[in-house]
């Protein structure tokens, strides 16, 4: 035995076995992506609310209205609905369906399918259902409120909402149109096909779901009869690769076309690599600092003002968050209706000291909980250093995301550092959580509102303005209302938007038209091509 | 589990056993098997109970993982009830054990799939990696340890010491990344992260879940080579760590034997050094060595989380760790059952080997 299994023999055997180590580029009609997809828990559009799940559904389903990946500035455009009309009183919107569109099953896409899909999402009442139920739909009334007749579909609203508000919400994944007949054939009990759709797909999108293996891979194949024309990419393979350095190696070796979770170090290194490019795209997530108004020190307006000057915006975005975030001090991300580009605060320890001294504050100690993600911990440590200069002590307890979230929802995090991602592509998604909190009492249990979580009693007039903006029929006026709310917010709110997320995707040089969805939606593959 | 009922009189003088004796022996054996099974069941039950309690006292809310951060209180409450968390802990645990006995491990909240299906998928990935890793560790570690002991203080002994020391002290994360960079990134000798190359993804029919075996069953030599090129690096890495342990243990076992009188006697009788080492001394260390190897294999079967993360290996370690951090108790308990059963099976196996290898225990 000792003669057969010497190290040299083993080495030789393995070298022989793996001799043809030719790792050429990926096939020309296949798009291979490495990213972290471990967050997928469901692929039912009525339930999916995770980034990676939405990334899949974005491509397997269509919606009544949608974004054009090649013209994101234009906002929502007709998709499965060819046109729509808003009633004079603003209380209903009627859509006319596009003709000749088919689901992956071959069934035609009808107004009936669209109506049933929306009704189903409301009735199932999973987490994202609020995107639809905020228009007055309930499981009980939805069949009367959402109706169809031939090729037209009508949404009857409970208030005359801004049409842009309603239509923006219809671009959300929960408004995806599912194939009623296919789903009905797979219903189990009262689940309206939820169990089946969690792992299967019944859409009309540019891609069909070929396979999903949790924590491993998602495979899509092009739908040849897609109404906008079949995709050039015939196969899309999304591989679960959590490590940035592994993604980088795969990209450098030509084994993948796109790497989506690169750290700044790897982005830098790839910047000088041959045959690889980096595409920066501002996404919707806002990194903010929430100062709990339950904390005696933090509830002092002077401390809130001082804290705005204790964040080294340029230093942070120039070092450990380089490329990943850009300074953005308003709660609506760039790319949203009414987004504000002003960044009024700068890093100024002396000014912060002066503000604290004027208010008679001589130091203080705060102990807070920070999620153990590198970007949050590093930001917290930078903050800790500048607070120390201003005479404030910050103690940091690191814990898992789930632990911090639990405490945050229980209003027990004095200084929260983390991100908020918009739920849908309308400004109300952020306004209604940052700048709206009608009842600040503990009993209200408004755990979904960031303002409540930070115990911020939003002034009455701001609450009202936030609601009024959802009803404004004129688009430009509506945008101005949001700009005004944000300006006021910047002046007084204890929740301080700091940075906006930028996604750095590493791509092979030949990959064209990559679009991760900008700040408003999820990734789109239909338009992607691979040149020579 | 030691065998106590050996015959003190020696074989030669024993009269043939009577029927009553044979029956008594059979009863004893039955009792011993029943006792073993009972102790196994109790061990598993205890393991599950401890895991269950740890999972429930952890400050992580599994409901949030299901409904997400944005859920309303009503949605939260509905999910809380649907998951049975409103029932007392004892009832929850008894209910869980009842389900397990009927083969229902529940549904994972972090993948949305049945735990049994998840495990069918992740366990073979780990098993394949751990088996190859242990093979590498044993086939190099044992000879290395024996030679190091035989040539004590010699160059091989020194090299073995350094190899083991590095194996013990080097962070696996760093070593794995460096390995990837060198053998995949620069030299291009091996496949990158993942179990297979992209073009083979989903191409080999799933029979055992072990891709190396499945590709051979399908007669797909190219897929086998591809899978081998992906597994060899992480397996070597794990193999290196078990090698470090196994070679040190082998060396110390051997040193003990080589210092004993029967070895001196054998040498005095003029036996060749090879015969002394392999035929006499090595045979005597086989028994403790089996235990060491079984333990090392068992620890690899738990899944080496860091190795799995670096090599994007969808194995049990990553699965259970992710589940634990998400408060996904069904998945954690399912993983615990698998790991617990493996350890118990390995213990049993080494007991059996013990009896086979040690003539005295017959």
Keywords:
heterodimer, A: 532 residues, alpha+beta, D-Maltodextrin-Binding Protein, domain 2, Dipeptide-binding Protein, domain 3, 2 domains, 19 helices, 19 strands, globular, disordered N terminus, B: 362 residues, mainly alpha, MetI-like fold, 14 helices, 72% helix
Short recap of the structure:
The complex is a heterodimer of chains A (532) and B (362). By secondary structure, chain A is of the alpha+beta class. Chain A is 31% helix and 21% strand.
In words, what does this structure look like?
The complex is a heterodimer of chains A (532) and B (362). Chain A folds into 2 domains: 30-231 and 509-530, 3-Layer(aba) Sandwich (D-Maltodextrin-Binding Protein, domain 2); 283-503, Dipeptide-binding Protein, domain 3 (Roll), CATH 3.10.105.10. In chain A, helix 11 (301-308) runs antiparallel to helix 13 (349-358) and helix 18 (460-469) packs antiparallel against helix 19. With 532 residues, chain A is an alpha+beta fold. In chain A, strands 1, 8, 9, 10, 11, 12, 13, 16 and 17 form a 9-stranded mixed β-sheet that branches. Chain A has a 4-stranded antiparallel β-sheet with strand order 4-5-7-6. In chain A, strand 8 (207-213) and strand 9 (217-222) form a beta hairpin. The radius of gyration of chain A is 25 Å and the shape is globular. Helix content of chain A is 31%, strand content 21%. Chain A is built from 19 helices and 19 strands. Chain B is an all-alpha fold and 362 residues long. Helix content of chain B is 72%, strand content 0%. Chain B has 14 helices and no strands. Chain B has helices spanning 19-57, 62-67, 73-82, 89-101, 115-150, 155-169, 172-186, 211-217, 221-258, 261-268, 273-301, 305-310, 316-325, 329-357. In chain B, helix 1 packs antiparallel against helix 14 and helix 11 (273-301) packs antiparallel against helix 14 (329-357). The radius of gyration of chain B is 25 Å and the shape is globular. Classes of the chains: A alpha+beta (532), B mainly alpha (362). Chains A and B meet through helix 1, strand 8, strand 10, helix 9 and helix 15 of A and helix 2, helix 3, helix 5, helix 7 and helix 9 of B. Chain A: Keywords: Signal. Chain A: Its main location: periplasm. Chain A: Belongs to the bacterial solute-binding protein 5 family.
């Amino acid at each position: 035995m000792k003669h057969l299994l010497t190290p040299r023999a083993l080495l030789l055997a393995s070298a022989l076995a793996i001799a043809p180590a030719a790792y050429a580029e990926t096939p020309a009609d296949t798009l291979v992506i490495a990213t972290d997809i471990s967050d997928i828990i469901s692929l039912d559009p009525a339930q999916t609310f995770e980034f990676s799940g939405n990334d899949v559904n974005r491509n397997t389903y269509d919606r009544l209205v949608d974004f054009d990946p090649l013209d994101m500035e234009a906002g929502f455009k007709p998709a499965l609905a060819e046109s729509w009309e808003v009633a004079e009183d603003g209380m209903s919107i009627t859509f006319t369906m596009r003709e000749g569109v088919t689901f992956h099953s071959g069934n035609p896409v009808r107004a009936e399918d669209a109506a049933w899909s929306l009704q189903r999402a409301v009735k199932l009442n999973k987490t994202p259902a609020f995107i639809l139920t905020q228009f007055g739909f309930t499981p009980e009334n939805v069949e009367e409120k959402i109706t169809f007749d031939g090729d037209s579909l009508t949404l009857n609203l409970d208030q005359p909402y801004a049409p842009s508000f309603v239509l923006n919400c219809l671009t959300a994944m929960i408004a995806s149109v599912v194939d009623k007949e296919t789903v009905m054939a797979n219903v189990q009990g009262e689940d309206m096909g939820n169990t089946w759709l969690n792992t299967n797909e019944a859409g009309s999108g540019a891609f069909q779901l070929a396979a999903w293996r949790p924590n491993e891979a998602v495979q899509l194949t092009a739908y040849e009869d897609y109404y906008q024309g079949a995709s050039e990419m015939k196969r899309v393979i999304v591989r679960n690769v959590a490590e940035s350095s592994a993604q980088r190696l795969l990209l450098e070796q030509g084994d993948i076309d796109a790497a989506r979770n690169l750290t700044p170090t790897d982005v830098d290194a790839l910047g000088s690599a041959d045959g690889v490019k980096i595409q920066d795209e501002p996404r919707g997530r806002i990194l903010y600092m929430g100062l709990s108004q339950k904390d005696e020190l933090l509830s002092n307006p002077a401390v809130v003002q001082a804290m705005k000057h204790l964040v080294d915006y340029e230093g942070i975005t120039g070092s450990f968050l380089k490329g990943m975030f850009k300074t953005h001090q308003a709660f609506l991300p760039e790319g949203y209706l009414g987004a504000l580009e002003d960044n009024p605060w700068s890093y100024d320890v002396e000014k912060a000291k002066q503000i604290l001294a004027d208010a008679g504050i001589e130091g203080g100690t705060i102990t807070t909980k920070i999620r153990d993600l590198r970007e949050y911990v590093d930001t917290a440590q930078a903050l800790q250093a500048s607070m120390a200069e201003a005479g404030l002590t910050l103690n940091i307890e690191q814990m898992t995301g789930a632990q911090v979230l639990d405490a945050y929802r229980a209003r027990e995090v004095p200084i929260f550092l983390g991100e908020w991602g918009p739920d849908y592509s309308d400004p109300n998604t952020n306004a209604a959580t940052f700048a709206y909190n009608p009842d600040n009492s503990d009993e209200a249990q408004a755990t979904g509102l960031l303002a409540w979580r930070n115990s911020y009693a939003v002034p009455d007039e701001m609450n009202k303005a936030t609601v009024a903006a959802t009803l404004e029929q004129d688009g430009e006026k509506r945008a101005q209302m949001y700009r005004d709310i944000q300006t006021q917010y910047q002046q007084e709110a204890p929740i301080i938007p700091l940075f906006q997320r930028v996604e750095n995707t590493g791509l092979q040089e030949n990959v064209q038209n990559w679009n991760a969805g900008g700040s408003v939606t999820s990734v789109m593959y239909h338009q992607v091509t691979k040149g020579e | 589990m030691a065998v106590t009922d050996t015959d003190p009189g020696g074989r030669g003088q024993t009269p043939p056993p009577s029927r009553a004796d044979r029956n008594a022996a059979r009863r004893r054996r039955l009792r011993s098997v029943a006792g073993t099974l009972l102790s196994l069941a109790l061990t598993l039950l205890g393991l599950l109970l401890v895991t269950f309690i740890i999972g429930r006292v952890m400050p992580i809310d599994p409901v949030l993982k299901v409904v997400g951060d944005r859920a309303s209180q009503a949605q939260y409450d509905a999910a809380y009830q649907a998951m049975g968390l409103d029932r007392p802990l004892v009832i929850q645990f008894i209910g869980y054990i009842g389900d397990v006995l009927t083969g229902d491990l529940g549904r994972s909240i972090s993948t949305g799939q049945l735990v049994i299906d998840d495990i069918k998928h992740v366990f073979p990935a780990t098993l394949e990696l751990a088996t190859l890793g242990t093979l590498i560790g044993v086939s190099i570690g044992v000879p290395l340890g024996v030679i190091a002991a035989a040539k004590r203080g010699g160059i091989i002994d020194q090299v073995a010491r350094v190899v083991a020391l590095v194996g013990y002290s080097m962070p696996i994360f760093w070593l794995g990344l460096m390995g990837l960079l060198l053998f995949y990134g620069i030299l291009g000798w091996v496949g990158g992260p993942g179990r297979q190359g992209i073009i083979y993804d989903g191409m080999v029919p799933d029979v055992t879940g072990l891709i190396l075996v499945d590709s051979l069953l399908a007669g797909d030599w190219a897929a086998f080579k591809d899978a081998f090129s992906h597994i060899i690096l992480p397996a070597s890495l794990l193999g290196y760590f078990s090698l470090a342990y196994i070679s040190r243990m082998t060396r110390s076992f051997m040193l003990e034997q080589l210092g004993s009188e029967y070895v001196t006697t054998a040498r005095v009788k003029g036996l060749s050094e090879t015969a002394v080492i392999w035929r006499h001394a090595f045979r005597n260390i086989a028994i403790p060595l089996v235990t060491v190897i079984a333990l090392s294999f068992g620890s690899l079967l738990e899944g080496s989380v860091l190795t799995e993360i670096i090599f994007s290996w969808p194995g049990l370690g990553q699965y259970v760790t992710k589940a634990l951090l998400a408060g996904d108790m069904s998945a954690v308990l399912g993983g615990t059952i698998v790991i617990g059963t493996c350890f118990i099976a390995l213990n049993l196996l080494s007991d059996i080997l013990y009896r086979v290898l040690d003539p005295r225990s017959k």
